[in-house]
Description:
single chain, alpha+beta
Amino acid sequence: MLKADTRLWKETLEDIVYPVLFFALGTWMFKGVPLWQVFTGTCLPWLLRGGIRAARNFGGLWRVEQRRQAAAKRYEWVPLAQPQPIADPAVLPLPCMISSKPGWLFYPLMLIVIWIVIILWMLVWIWQYAGPPVHALVLSLIITLPLSSIWYLAEYQWIEAREEGLTIRSRFRRRSIHWDEARLFAIDATVKTDQTPDRYELSSATTILRWSRKLESSRFTRLSSPIQEYARQMDSLLALIAARTGLPLYDLRDWRLPPLPAPPYPPTFSLNEPQPNVPKA
């Protein structure tokens, strides 16, 4: 049993909630603006974005979910990642913490970018209704500050490996999985097949953990250690997970391929029994 990936339904819900929220906010803030203009300035961009994203990702994420469930049952036709991490339960001293945080340049740059986008949006749609230029600039800042702050805080990530399990936390959530509860270890499907894997998943029957790794140093990111040591720790984390869970690392990135066929016969093994393509801890 594996917890289903809810990203598809969350994205669909976002495509509905955000247009309604921005439309309600626009009608409240700009009471003199015609409703059709508020709609085209708030709802329409989100609806177009959501429609394009749904058209591109719906079928793909559905096929990914099929592969996730099949991988949890150890079907051999689900592709394994190459190369596989070498299982080593002592590769990292436990407890171990690996973190990435936004750098000091990240927030001001993000603030400027979002502010420019909002000013351009106001120039096109509602500038004539926003009052004097000073009022319009203040209004744009009122919208920009919470958006940029939420984005900034969302960039924080802590990965905690302990004797009992793995924990991934950010400023907004904290999730954990015990080693013996894990059922799937995989490269996340959102990584492109021609790119170096930088996002991973560890899932159980009740929880999905996802984390990302930085592939290079940047002024926009602060890592818990220099980039060479950070890369070694992230590689060691994969080896630790493989050793503690006994799971192979699956590759879910081929989501653009047609759905994989069902096996010709049901599996005759138990999930508790080691399989040929499952390295022993």
